[in-house]
Amino acid sequence: MEQKNALGKKQIGRFITVGEIMLRLTPPNYEKIRGTSGFDASYGGSEANIALALANLGVDSTFFSVVPDNSLGKSAIRWLRSNDVHCTPMILSTPEQTPTHRMGVYYVETGYGIRASKVIYDRKNSAFAEFDFNTVDLDQLLEGYDWLHLGGITPALGERCRGFVMACLKKAKEKGMVISFDGNFRKNLWTWEEARDFCTACLPYADVLFGIEPYHLWKDEQDHTKGDWKDDIPFQPDLEQQDQVFRRFVERYPNIQCIARHVRYAHSVSENSLKAYMWYEGKTIESNLFSFHILDRVGGGDAFVSGLIYGMIHHYNASDMVNFAVASSAIKHTIHGDGNITDDAQTIKNLMNMNYDIKR
């Protein structure tokens, strides 16, 4: 199925993403939460991670969020700015605007060997989740930007956030921006049915799509008495099976010009391999396989997304684009914290260009 590629010719100067930034608390030295006497503090969140990674690679990158007008909120903004992320649109909310006036928090218990990592969220009724986004001028917020990235975590935070994400999608489409969307399902935040219905409604607006690993997250109306075609697709598909999935998406949503997903092979909690599939310019391609030891897994998917966006912005060929994305994710697994703080693209290219012939 051939399709005209508008993304490859479009000049991208400015990137913006929208989401919640949170305080991250992690016990040191792989300790368990129930046994630790202290926590290492940092900041993170999917969209913030992507903005940070792109900014570190030299992309003009802006992040919009709402944080409480206190030392925690200001510290989060200072951290983003220290990584070259533009934060001018950020809102410091007052108790009058958001009565709970708190910052979302999440705890990461880092796994090791055979012990899996654990994440505990404490983000209900945060300043971001409670903010009245009807007060945001979307024309002004998105003016002058070329690319908008949104994800499935933000709308999971409540009706206000769902309405804001949908309004952003519509306004960005109206302005002719490139729109990327990451399904990014979090079962601790909303039900599968809620996620499926909302994320499916976002598909007509997306030019670039991520996070389709849970194929059933997307509605596919058909005669279910004959079974669901997605039942036959494994979580770790081969190239032919993945191509079937991608083509099903683009047949229904011809606005989608690129779809990408990574496939993880967990040899242990501390050692993984990654590869990726990408549908682009009418065909599905497969990346090399990257194997690595894990220092911190959180943010690996965001590093993949930012790597692919970077490759598209810089007009890489399809093979280099998907391999750069997987290499970005692999490197992130060796960095403490959520963000892929990689100073230059050459570091990622060096890994990308290595010959990976490991067969798992």
Outline the fold blueprint.
Blueprint: E1 14-18, E2 22-26, E3 40-44, H1 46-56, E4 60-64, E5 66-68, H2 71-82, E6 91-93, E7 105-109, E8 118-122, H3 127-130, H4 138-142, E9 147-151, H5 159-175, E10 178-182, H6 192-202, E11 208-210, H7 239-252, E12 258-268, E13 271-280, E14 283-286, E15 290-293, H8 300-313, H9 318-332, H10 345-352
Parallel strand pairs: 1-4, 1-9, 2-7, 5-6, 9-10, 10-11, 11-12
Antiparallel strand pairs: 2-3, 7-8, 12-13, 13-14, 13-15
Q: How would you describe this protein?
A:
With 360 residues, the protein is of the alpha/beta class. Helices cover 31% and strands 22% of the residues. It contains 10 helices and 15 strands. The strands form 3 sheets. Strands 1, 4, 9, 10, 11, 12, 13, 14 and 15 form a 9-stranded mixed beta sheet that branches. Strands 3-2-7-8 form a 4-stranded mixed beta sheet. A two-stranded parallel sheet has the order 5-6. Helix 8 (300-313) packs antiparallel against helix 9. The chain is globular.
Write a brief structural summary.
The protein is an alpha/beta fold. Helix content is 31%, strand content 22%.
Number of strands: 15
Shape: globular
| Percentage of β-strand residues | 15-25%
Assembly classification: single chain
The whole-angstrom Rg is 20 Å
Number of helices: 10
Class inferred from helices and paired strands: alpha/beta
Helix content: 25-40%
* Biggest sheet details: 9 strands, mixed
Poorly predicted residue ranges:
223-227, 355-360
Termini separation: 31 Å
- One letter per element, helices H and strands E, the order comes to EEEHEEHEEEHHEHEHEHEEEEHHH
Mean pLDDT: 89
